[in-house]
Amino acid sequence: MPYPEEAQGFMIDGPANWTSFQKRSFPLKPFGESDVDVKVEACGICGSDVHTASGGWGPMHFPLCCGHEIVGTAIRIGPKVTNIKQGQRVGVGAQVYSCGECKQCKNNNETYCPNIIIDTYGSKWPDTGIISQGGYSSHVRAHEHWVFPIPEKLDTNVVAPMLCAGITAFSPLVRNGAGPGKKVGIVGMGGIGHLGIMFAKALGAETWAISRTRAKEADARKLGADGFIATSEEGWDQQHRFSFDLIVNCANSSRNFDLARYLSMMDVHGRWVSVGLPEEEGQIIKAQNLIDNGVLIGASHLGSRKEMLQMLDLAAEKNLGTWVETIDINEENLKEAMLRMKKGDVHYRFTLTGFDEAFP
Amino acid sequence: MPYPEEAQGFMIDGPANWTSFQKRSFPLKPFGESDVDVKVEACGICGSDVHTASGGWGPMHFPLCCGHEIVGTAIRIGPKVTNIKQGQRVGVGAQVYSCGECKQCKNNNETYCPNIIIDTYGSKWPDTGIISQGGYSSHVRAHEHWVFPIPEKLDTNVVAPMLCAGITAFSPLVRNGAGPGKKVGIVGMGGIGHLGIMFAKALGAETWAISRTRAKEADARKLGADGFIATSEEGWDQQHRFSFDLIVNCANSSRNFDLARYLSMMDVHGRWVSVGLPEEEGQIIKAQNLIDNGVLIGASHLGSRKEMLQMLDLAAEKNLGTWVETIDINEENLKEAMLRMKKGDVHYRFTLTGFDEAFP
């Protein structure tokens, strides 16, 4: 058979055994006229993979193959595909479908489609009931709108995490005006945060890294940060009162987080946008904490195709790359990587490699 | 003495006796070169007066004279005053001073001044330590920036509540783009909310009143509402999913308030702006509730001088007026009005009158 109707991937059976990966076959959704099959060559390990696999975000469809920071080769192109050419190097991020017809989809808000959102893994395709599966695998199948040509200058392993972590940081930056003359903060220097610093700087904003301690200050400066705030230090918020236009909160926990102090650093009507989805119960917000500066609090979900292409172009133009540790995909390495991710022990992203060997 | 150095007002001694008003004298701050003395002719009764007097917002300076929806005559003009003429009919709202020098003050954000905000009543003037006192009184003294000429067409008693309730609704509307092509909701049909409906419509927005029951629907329609949502009805949120550009939340309690359902009605990156300051402990907000539509949550505090003048002009141009019940100022009437305010038993604002008789 020239084209796969199923793929192979490293799957887990549920949160009880969330680091126990098994290589298995799984069905792909029926190939549609606008679909693209991608043979996977690299895949980042996202914080979402850990939240999902370990059950922190609640029940999911198992067995499950995670992975949504995918780069590979387009090996099959549906007859109606116009964005992608066969043989092209492409990326796939965390979403593979939306309705495409609604106001939001037509308005570059397809990651907020109210009608249907199919995540790259763990969503049920309508009609068939097939569960979407991610990029710890031989192949993924996606609607062409969600498949992105990768500029030649970008290295496969280095660009892979940009497909989710990168766009997650980039979209709220461009949607909220990060650029020259603006003071932008990035809270949390993990996979998303380190790319946030890089992009905020590349977009021309005065860029501040905000972290608990100064342990990552040197890295932050290398990534382009103009300033560094350590929230374990006395008076960290006082000297920045009423000054930030935008803070993108990339922290993936809200525990011990004194939101009011962060908000006090915002300029009038500045924006505090969270991109992490902490597993905790949320934060208590009083109108009193918002009223001194009329700050706006929001959240952001991935980014549009348009923004994805813009981000990749910017990365190519300015030689930006994820800081990655590569690791060959197999049962043992996946287990180790997941455990290290859980501890935050990676600077700042794993990219899985060696797919040819794992899926010969 | 041609000019007063003290004023008389109806004061309360503290939350324990918050409806027990006593007519007393109190000192005015020393008259400054940019100050204006206003002889009070009408004063609205604001929800803030009730929150403050009854102790719901915490400790205050007592004895206290409330009232910050003031209309009267400018009887004395400091030598540096340029905005106001002696003898002119003017209004004073809920704030009487800010630093005037900082970025915020110079940028029409003087109600968010980080350096100093003197509320019309209950704030301590620097240097003298004199507590500012409000408009249930014979006179108020304010910096000219906070004294607003009242257009001739507007009736004194009807315009008074616009000085706080009106600007509180108007500022978030204009700052967040309420106008033609926008769908705007107003939650809570009280003093602020009924003016919010009126102004949203006058600004050209598709205007929806949002209330618990349909009891106030006829009033809402008269005020200009294009639509009405009753949150006690089944599925009230479903039919408005992803549709509101802006909702101004004028409810003054957050009890039993299922915020996630309200937020689900917002268009992508729509704004939910609260103007009430509920006495409760705040609401738990999860990033998960914000991420489906990337909604922004904020709060708003009064409005700039520029917006105040714009609002008064709009009211004059479109014949807009607060719906008021007038009541002569005296001990008994104040007690009754405060108790009725506490129950929400007024459609939709009290304006105190009869100042000449009370302060001969």
Characterization of the model:
- The structure is a homodimer of 360-residue chains.
- Chain A is an alpha/beta fold and 360 residues long.
- Chain A has two domains: 6-164 and 305-358, Alpha-Beta Complex (Quinone Oxidoreductase, Chain A, domain 1), CATH 3.90.180.10; 166-299, 3-Layer(aba) Sandwich (Rossmann fold), CATH 3.40.50.
- The first copy, chain A, is 23% helix and 27% strand.
- Chain A is built from ten helices and 18 strands.
- In chain A, the strands form four sheets. In chain A, strands 3, 4, 5, 8, 9, 17 and 18 form a seven-stranded mixed sheet that branches. In chain A, strands 12-11-10-13-14-16 form a six-stranded parallel sheet, with helices on one face. A two-stranded antiparallel sheet of chain A has the order 1-2.
- In chain A, helix 6 links the parallel strand 13 and strand 14 (266-274).
- In chain A, helix 3 (165-175) packs across helix 4 (191-202).
- The mean pLDDT of chain A is 95.
- Chains A and B meet through strand 14, strand 15, helix 7 and strand 16 of A and strand 14, strand 15, helix 7 and strand 16 of B.
- Strand 15 of chain A pairs antiparallel with strand 15 (283-285) of chain B.
